[in-house]
């Protein structure tokens, strides 16, 4: 997935259909001059229904269509014939989509499962025909109900990436390179900060034809939880990951300090993020010789006793299979 077609925040307009009017009809045929009321009911208006689609990864398709209007129900007819219901409109969204009211920003619902369907706006109820209003004292009612109006609303759709593993780290830590090596994703890679401006997703192939989804979250900077950089725009994608892989470059001035800064930003944004399983990958380990690697290992064992870590290199392939094994074990283990 390229950054240019990744859209994770859109505003749309939706309106359900109006209910059809009930019929005010009196039965007439030869030899039955006063057959009484036989007006049928109107059909309901079409619903606006959201449906989860596991094959969608972005909201890019809403760039070309932002208005969704369901059809009205048809009016009832003679001989107690019912009007047809309006056609429902299905809006397909990727898993992880949150639907909000555009004015209040109230969360209405979220779609997290494939084929999950939620009626967002109900079509108006069809009106009752005059057949329903006959009584002993009013045997020929000359009135029927009109259909009820539908609903309309402006909606915000916000996608929070659903992935098994989220890559967390400072800009230019090697996350995009790691993703490109482990998966078939082709993220933009360069030697300057903030190369990645949108989440990139890739499928990591594991042993025995098993696989899991990895997301490269754009780089976090200190103060991101308060909105610095692109702040919440980056951090909200981490909420849906099952496990977090912290990627810190081996040539960092202080690996433990960088990890704690990243952890503090996550906690400031949402303390529940600290409940997720965590693993630190020391990237660019190919620049270290064995002596430096062992010295750094002992140093990190003392300062990062609460979280596991390993050394990897996306260039040489060092530690990548071990990394995949560890991540697979993490996402398949209940906390």
UniProtKB/TrEMBL annotation:
Residues that bind GTP, according to the entry?
A: 169-176, 194-198, 216-219, 283-286, 313-315
Q: What is its EC number?
A: 3.6.5.-
Keyword check for GTP-binding, yes or no: yes
Signal sequence annotation: none
Q: Which UniProt keywords apply?
A: Cytoplasm, GTP-binding, Hydrolase, Magnesium, Metal-binding, Nucleotide-binding
Positions bound to Mg(2+) = 176, 196
The protein here is known as: GTPase Obg
Q: Which species is this record about?
A: Capnocytophaga bilenii
């Amino acid at each position: 997935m390229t950054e240019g077609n990744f859209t994770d925040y859109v505003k749309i307009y939706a309106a359900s259909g109006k209910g059809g009017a009930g019929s005010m009809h009196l039965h007439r045929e030869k030899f039955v001059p006063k057959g009484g009321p036989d007006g049928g009911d109107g059909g309901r208006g079409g619903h606006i229904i959201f449906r989860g689609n596991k094959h969608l990864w972005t909201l890019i398709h809403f760039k070309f269509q932002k208005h969704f209007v369901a059809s009205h129900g048809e009016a009832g007819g003679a001989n107690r014939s019912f009007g047809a219901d309006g056609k429902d409109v299905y809006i397909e969204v990727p898993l992880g989509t949150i639907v909000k009211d555009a004015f209040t920003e109230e969360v209405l619902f979220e779609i997290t499962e494939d084929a999950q369907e939620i009626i967002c706006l109900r079509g108006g109820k069809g009106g009752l025909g005059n057949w329903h209003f006959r009584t002993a004292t009013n045997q020929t009612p000359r009135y029927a109900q009109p259909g009820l109006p539908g609903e309309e609303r402006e909606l915000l759709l916000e996608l929070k990436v659903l992935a098994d593993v989220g890559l967390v780290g400072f800009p230019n830590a090697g996350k995009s390179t790691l993703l490109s090596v482990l998966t078939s994703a082709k993220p933009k890679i360069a030697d300057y900060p903030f190369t990645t401006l949108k989440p990139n997703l890739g499928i990591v192939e594991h042993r025995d034809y098993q696989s899991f989804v990895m997301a490269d979250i754009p780089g976090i900077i200190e103060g991101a939880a308060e909105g610095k950089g692109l702040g919440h725009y980056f951090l909200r994608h981490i909420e849906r990951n099952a496990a977090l892989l912290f990627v810190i470059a081996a040539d960092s001035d202080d690996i433990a300090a960088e990890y704690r800064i990243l952890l503090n930003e996550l906690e400031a944004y949402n303390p529940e993020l600290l409940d997720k399983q965590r693993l630190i990958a020391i990237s660019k380990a190919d620049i270290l010789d064995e002596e430096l690697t062992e010295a750094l290992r002992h140093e990190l064992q003392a300062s990062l006793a609460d979280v596991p870590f390993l050394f990897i290199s996306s260039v040489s392939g060092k530690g990548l299979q071990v990394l995949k094994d560890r991540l697979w074990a993490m996402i398949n283990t209940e906390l």
